[in-house]
Amino acid sequence: DHEVDNSPKDEFQELLQTLEQHMSWDGQRLVKYKGFWFLVMIFRPMLFARKNFKAKDTDVIISTMSKSGTTWLKALTFSIANRDRFTIDQSPLLACNPHTVVPFLEYNLYWEQENPDLEDIPCPRIFATHMPFDFLPDSVHENGSRIIYIGRNPLDQFVSQRHFLLENKIGKEADHPLGVDEAFDMFCRGIHSWGPFWEHMHGYWNAHSENPRKVLFLKYEDLKEDITSQVKKIAEFMGFPFSLEEAKQGLIDQISGLCSFESLRNLAANKTGNNLNGLVKNSSFFRKGKVGDWTNYLTPAMAERVRKLMESKFEGSGLIF
Ligand code: A3P
One of this protein's Pfam families, by short name (predicted)? Predict the structure, then answer.
């Protein structure tokens, strides 16, 4: 039994009792709060982060649905922001996993601490979260900090998530998970960690549409297609555009190369060890790194179901996957 008991022991316990709960397909407990499904184990750290995190104007918040390119985006933003501190061959990414370098609010910083002191982290601070847009701490909404979201085709996200959970065996039923049909059905009903996926994406997409200087909306598929232009875009958005000189020196290619799937996956630091409080293997963040792997696991009928879902949920918003 690998399930972590991070269950709330106080006011959250009471709140939890009042909320709808459901078992995920791998046996982790989910709770529904304000329209979203959260892992029970993440509920308390998330609410603490939401309540106590104080953003600085220079902060960058990486927001994602899990398995949508978080690791990649962490590596890229960290490298872009710190390129004057470390040359490529001195990068901390060569020695540790991107999740060590850019922590999650809920899985790391607020996991055990109600109000950790984050003041001394060098600026620009980069933090990550899987929280839906409306759940972000008030200071993030109110100050000059910037948010970078990365979305991914939900079919690939589902397949990636399924492999990740089966490999790490976090849930109680990890040895006897529900089959792919049932798991997919729950996914389409929005009953999955951080789900419904369409609400998650839509929230950030709308925020981006309303204020593109506050929220950058990236797609995993676009990074796969043309990493150079996306890295430039990220750097500009973060307020650290590449100079002509840097571009001539090949710095954009060097950063893209360091952060590429092949490069990161082959580092010793990413082949061994655990992360996110020992819950998951570092290596499990690097599986295939491909677009369209869903075709190896899901049927055209399943794809059609998601296509229709997205069509109705995203109608008129301009969001397409
Ligand atoms: P697959 O399971 O489809 O291979 P996250 O980082 O949000 O947890 O997402 C993990 C997914 O991103 C996995 O997808 C993983 O292989 C892929 N990934 C991790 N690092 C990557 C990189 N540097 N470039 C491209 N894809 C990467």
Answer: Sulfotransfer_1
